[in-house]
Amino acid sequence: MTLQEIIDSSDNIVFFGGAGVSTESGIPDFRSVDGLYNMKYDYPPETILSHTFFMNNTEEFYKFYRDKLIVKGVKPNKAHIALAKLEEKGKLKAVITQNIDGLHQMAGSKNVLELHGSTLRNYCMDCGKSYDIDYIESSKGVPKCECGGIIKPDVVLYEEMLNDDTITKSVQYISNADVLIIGGTSLNVYPAAGFINYFKGSKLVIINKAATSADKNADLVISEPIGEVLGSLKI
Length: 235
Hints:
Blueprint: H1 3-8, E1 13-17, H2 45-48, H3 51-56, H4 58-69, H5 78-88, E2 92-97, H6 103-107, E3 112-114, E4 117-124, E5 130-131, H7 133-138, E6 151-155, H8 164-176, E7 179-183, E8 203-207, E9 220-222, H9 226-231
Parallel strand pairs: 1-2, 1-7, 2-3, 7-8, 8-9
Antiparallel strand pairs: 4-5, 4-6
Family: Belongs to the sirtuin family. Class U subfamily.
InterPro entries: DHS-like_NAD/FAD-binding_dom, NAD-dep_sirtuin_deacylases, Sirtuin, Sirtuin_cat_small_dom_sf, Sirtuin_class_U, Ssirtuin_cat_dom
GO molecular function: histone deacetylase activity, NAD-dependent; NAD+ binding; zinc ion binding
């Protein structure tokens, strides 16, 4: 079966996506050859993006964060737009994403489960007041709340737990799905990548430029850019 046929024949689809969904919008993939993990900093990105580093080297954390994780002026690509259309048509039940850029919502998707949080939301660690991305970008050094507390991005850092509610909902949607489309992820980041083991439906589709650990179990594997693949669908 082609991807078009699989989508045409189902109205219970769930999409599970990673960094590759946003690369066509100009946001670097963490693990690709030219991604964040190959950039030169005083510390490796895994260290900078850890809870310990954030607490102990907050100013250094924010230098990297403003430089690399706040990406302004980006727009949803064909993949984001196609997924929003599938949801609007009642075919797609949820987007589960490892991305923190908010592009799915910008494209019009309503039911988006953000496993790793979002750079668009930030909060004071003392009083809980919310701040937007512009406040973080325009602040100097460590962004502070009006109460004096340190502001933290609503992003799941290394050493931090994923949100329980988001995990429960993600597992529920995957468990109940008829079709699971995995796109733009190498399936190397746990615990998120382990969620796909809950899929019991009829068709597993993988769209990723590189091979993944789930390819052998898939009904359809497409090794092409995801924007081109989803953008060519008739929805």
